[in-house]
Design goal:
42% helix; 331 residues; Rossmann fold; seven-stranded mixed beta sheet; 12 strands; 18% strand; 14 helices; five-stranded parallel beta sheet; alpha/beta
Length: 331
């Protein structure tokens, strides 16, 4: 608890209070202050959101961009609905911004419809080409570039892990983000026959829809769950973990935060690293480079996390070979 309180104080000190610094006092004489709006779907008190943005601000500072001195960072939280995103886009245009950091496909889509010339650097986007954000990964071609969540090829790995830790599973609920989960679901559907499982998609419009879907799914035995990436699943991670625990459903997640929160197993990229890497792209754009010339980048490393306490509660024995491959084991 003390650590969490320390992290919150550090987070507020790093950029919460900096926004109130008088720019005229802190800016060096003759130096133009750049504006960097930040838009995220997570709440201001979400510890994962705080951790990710703290990493972004720290990396910016390392690159010489200090909030209140030569940059002004305007953070907007809870941007999860289209009308909210459009409202924030209008606010950003009025600033005006030099470059925008956008977290998640729904936010990028909303900004793209309102902003055509301001550079946008994204994180937490699954398929920027299919979404129409960029022309190609190597040559984005417009005012948008950034860092992908992962490549679809790892979707099959989630099924492999689920069958490895719970071989009796024959039915799998896929808790998919409706705005970004189509490609992930397609990749899972293409591999499901080889694992002998039936997939049942469950939407994530709100916690109620997730709850109704999982409650109905759990009425039939031999079920498991896969929770791919998406802003909605991150927002509703606590009720998703609670539902899996209540119904004794072995579940594989795409983000280790689910495992540290009580979930069974996760396989996915480091979710903080893209925020650090985004700072480097914003630095390059502020120094004159164009998003059209900065290639979209995919994660370079994936990590496996296992929660042994969750496995014990489900009556599962984690195979020794699987434990040996894990990057993180929570006991």
């Amino acid at each position: 608890m003390q650590f969490d309180q320390l992290k919150r104080r550090e987070f507020i000190a790093l950029f919460g209070g900096a926004a109130a610094w008088p720019l005229a006092v802190n800016a060096q004489q003759g130096e133009r202050v750049r504006r960097i709006p930040v838009l995220t779907p997570l709440a201001a008190d979400d510890t994962q959101g705080q951790t990710r943005l703290t990493a972004f601000f720290q990396e910016l500072r390392e690159l010489g961009w200090i909030d209140g001195r030569n940059v002004r960072i305007d953070t907007r939280w809870n941007a999860s609905k289209p009308d909210e995103i459009r409202k924030y886009a209008a606010e950003f245009v009025a600033l005006p911004p030099d470059v925008i950091l956008a977290a998640g496909s729904p936010i990028v889509a909303g900004l793209q419809s309102e902003i055509r010339t301001v550079p946008i650097v994204f994180v937490q986007v699954t398929d920027p080409v299919a979404a129409g954000f960029v022309d190609s990964l190597s040559r984005p071609g417009g005012n948008i570039t950034g860092f992908m969540n992962f490549e679809y090829g790892i979707s099959g790995k989630w099924l492999e892990l689920l069958k490895e830790i719970a071989p009796r599973v024959t039915r799998v609920a896929v808790i998919r983000d409706l705005t970004t989960g189509l490609g992930q679901l397609g990749a899972l559907q293409s591999t499901a026959p080889s694992f002998g499982v039936e997939l049942i998609p469950i939407g994530t419009r709100d916690a109620g829809e997730i709850g109704r879907g999982v409650n109905a799914f759990a009425q039939v035995p031999d079920g498991g769950m896969i929770v791919p990436a998406g802003a909605a699943v991150t927002i509703y991670r606590e009720p998703i973990i609670m539902l899996a625990t209540r119904h004794r459903l072995p579940a594989v997640y795409s983000d280790r935060v689910f495992v540290t929160g009580g979930g069974l197993i996760a396989y996915g990229p480091d979710r903080v690293a893209p925020f650090r890497r985004a700072a480097s792209y914003i630095d390059r754009i502020l120094k004159g480079e164009k998003p059209a010339d900065l290639p979209v980048q995919a994660p370079t490393k994936y990590e496996l996390a296992i929660n042994l306490k969750a496995a014990q509660a489900l009556g599962l024995t984690v195979p020794p070979m699987l434990l040996a491959r894990a990057d993180e084991v929570i006991e």
